[in-house]
């Protein structure tokens, strides 16, 4: 019997496996996809996420430094610098390749396959042909493990979806830019010296180009050709009854997700991975629920607040002017999430 099975080999799962292995736990990661794995995400890692990557002993993958967040509206803009280090714009494939290399370097065993059914007893859990003391489900936004354990909660609010594409163009900024419109948001993240990622989030189901037409000032800057195909994700909001079920802990997006609006996905995934391993090493998995709530509280509250306000056309039009008129408040909000 090993110490830990990790279901899912994305950033959350690989970070969990590295922390566990470095603390002396024999760990296996089960992942059906072949490295590197791409995903529709904003690709901006906040400063806390950069520090978490370094704590894993990871040499940072190639990317583009980020100094802060900029909101852009029809007539106003507001920007806030990070207060504690730089962020990093990085292609998801580069980040995944670097984390996979670090995991293998640390001694993590990565198995290509599917976990299948998760079965628990008083002292062990079995999945994918392995038996372990504990299992961490880091299998993403629509976690099959979370669903199979009956931990999914319904959500009746409007569903939001994301689409992402890259453009071969020199970045014009070292900020993550959020362009606002009544129909949704467009996020611009520089990820290399000649590449920017553009992600659109909205409750409206339509094609990427149709979404982008709602941001004419942004569209005018995208003079280079598309460099990647469009990838999609959603519905974004996912709710879980709790983060633990017997010998299973939910980490990363599998633990529940509010929205990509504030760009904290990777940083929260890395933080929840470290917290989960710390609780397991202490023999107190029951502490993980409180730990997860504590580390995600500010993100959940601020993201929920922005979503409720931007869910109405009138509210969406006021967000950027309000941020521009109250720069200290905007800066405080950005730094609370970094």
Identify the overall geometry.
globular
Instruction: Enumerate the spans where pLDDT stays under 50 for 5 or more consecutive residues.
Output: none
**Any guess at the CATH architecture of the domain at 2-44 and 92-156 and 236-310?**
3-Layer(bba) Sandwich
Annotated CATH topology of the domain at 2-44 and 92-156 and 236-310: FAD/NAD(P)-binding domain
Number of helical segments? 10
State the end-to-end distance: 39 Å
Largest sheet: 8 strands, mixed
Order of helices and strands: EHEEHEEEEHEEEEHEEEEEHHEEEEHHHH
- Mean pLDDT equals 91
CATH classification class of the domain at 2-44 and 92-156 and 236-310? Alpha Beta
CATH superfamily of the domain at 2-44 and 92-156 and 236-310: FAD/NAD(P)-binding domain
Number of strands: 20
**Proportion in helices:** 25-40%
Give the gist of this structure.
By secondary structure, the chain is α+β, with helices and mostly antiparallel strands. It is built from 10 helices and 20 strands. The strands form 4 sheets. Strands 1, 2, 8, 9, 10, 11, 19 and 20 form an 8-stranded mixed beta sheet that branches. The protein has a 7-stranded mixed beta sheet with strand order 6-5-14-15-16-13-17. The chain has a 3-stranded antiparallel beta sheet with strand order 3-7-4.
């Amino acid at each position: 019997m090993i110490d830990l099975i990790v279901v899912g080999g994305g950033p959350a799962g690989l970070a969990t496996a590295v922390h566990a292995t470095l603390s002396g736990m024999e760990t296996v990661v089960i992942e059906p996809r072949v490295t590197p794995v791409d995903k529709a995400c904003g690709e901006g890692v906040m400063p806390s996420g950069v520090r978490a990557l370094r704590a894993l002993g990871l040499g940072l993958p190639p990317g583009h430094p980020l100094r802060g967040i900029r909101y852009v509206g029809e007539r106003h803009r507001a920007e806030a610098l990070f207060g504690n280090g730089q962020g990093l714009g990085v292609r998801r494939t580069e980040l995944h390749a670097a984390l996979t290399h670090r995991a293998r370097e640390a001694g993590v065993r990565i198995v290509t396959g599917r976990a299948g059914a998760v079965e628990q007893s008083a002292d062990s859990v079995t999945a994918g042909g392995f038996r372990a003391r504990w299992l961490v489900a880091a299998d993403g936004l629509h976690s099959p493990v979370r669903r199979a354990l009956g931990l999914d909660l319904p959500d009746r609010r409007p569903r939001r979806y994301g689409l992402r594409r890259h453009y071969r163009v020199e970045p014009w900024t070292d900020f993550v830019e959020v362009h606002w419109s009544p129909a949704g948001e467009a996020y611009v993240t520089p990820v290399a010296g000649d590449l920017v990622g553009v992600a659109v989030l909205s409750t409206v189901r339509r094609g990427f180009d149709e979404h982008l037409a709602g941001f004419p000032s942004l569209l005018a800057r995208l003079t280079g050709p598309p460099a990647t195909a469009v990838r999609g994700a959603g519905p974004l909001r996912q709710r879980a009854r709790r983060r633990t079920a017997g010998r299973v802990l939910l980490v990363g997006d599998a633990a529940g997700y509010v929205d990509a609006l504030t760009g904290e996905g990777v940083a929260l995934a890395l933080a929840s991975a470290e917290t989960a391993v710390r609780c397991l090493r202490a023999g107190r998995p029951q502490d993980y629920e409180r730990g997860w709530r504590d580390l995600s509280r500010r993100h959940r509250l601020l993201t929920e607040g922005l979503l409720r306000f931007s869910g109405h056309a009138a509210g969406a039009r006021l967000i950027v002017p309000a941020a521009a008129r109250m720069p200290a408040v905007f800066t405080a909000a950005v730094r609370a999430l970094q």
